[in-house]
Amino acid sequence: MSNVENRPAEQEVCSAGSAIATEPDAELLHPREVPLGGPRAMRVRRALPNRDRRMVGAWCFADSYGPTDITRQPGMQVPPHPHTGLQTVTWLVEGEVWHQDSVGSRQLVRPGQLPLMTAGHGIAHSEQSPPEHSARLYGAQLWVALPERSRHVAPAFEFYDSLPRHELRDGAITVLAGEVDGAVSPARTHSPLVGACLSLPGGGSLPVPLEPDFEHAVLALSPGLIAEDVPVPVGAMLYLGRGRNETRISAQPGGQALLLGGEPFREDLVMWWNFVGRSHEDVVAARETWEAEHDSDAAERRFGAVHGYDGPALPAPSLPHARLKARSRYHPHR
């Protein structure tokens, strides 16, 4: 998914120099609403980057959306756009998304399936609801920042139609990335992290094992979710800090949440629009290359071409007048 804001927030950068709490914490992060495209676009709830906290482990971006009725509507329509220095994770609860990218991948994604796209030094992709789509669209889009040793790898796409799953009394834990209580996702990651879907179809309570060396957060996808005795509104994220061996969530019937976590990311990042780099110059170079390449017929491209998409690519927004600089992982009032 693209960050399609015309004025991407300059705050979407973070510094490794920030102190990181080593004790359990509980901090509710409220999302902001962002249009996914033009004036009539579907709207999403953006929990990361947040004005109070910009990363959880290597997870640096978290949008959730729906359930949205897209009957007789186009649904998700995101034209080809670029990425650098990250991995994208799509997770659907309802609906379908058609993924196409510049390494030749063409994949229809359905609920419970995991598409993992590694941008590396540069990739382009589009995301669309197919013409014959379900009545509702409901899910999340996440980004993982690549560490320095991996951020220039060749772009790639992986797809998994089944994932390891813990069945518990009141629900289930599906492991998207990393490991939860011995269940290991097949998805390739480049830093120690975890991602899991927590589902409570009949409501109730779900114990969730945690790695105490990781920081964690719970992203609410449905109403009525409670974590660590804190109500978490739809689209909001409860940051849990480090040092926990377990957390427990409760929910109404149909409860859905995502667990995100990992070792605190200790490298400086500059994240602007769809690019994750290390400096202002990284971002400027990526933007200039995309503007020169997209919709061109050049044989050699950094980002490549998304063949099969009918329409123009997304142009990059204008850069801010100020120089992009790394800022704290969290708001300095903390």
Report the CATH architecture.
Sandwich
Written as H for each helix and E for each strand, in order along the chain, the element string is EEEEEEEEEEEEEEEEEEEEEEEEEEEH
Helix share bin: under 10%
How many helix segments?
1
Structural class by sheet pairing and helices:
mainly beta
Q: Estimate the mean pLDDT confidence.
A: 91
- Low-pLDDT runs of 5+ residues are none
Q: How far apart are the termini?
A: 31 Å
Provide the spatial order of strands within the biggest beta sheet: 2-23-20-25-18-15-14
Count of domain modules: 1
CATH superfamily: Jelly Rolls
Report the sheet-strand fraction.
35-45%
Identify the overall geometry.
Answer: globular
CATH topology: Jelly Rolls
- The level 1 CATH classification is Mainly Beta
Task: Give a quick account of the main beta sheet: strands, pairing sense, barrel closure.
Answer: 7 strands, antiparallel
Gyration radius, to the nearest Å? 19 Å
Assembly form of the protein: single chain
The strand count comes to 27
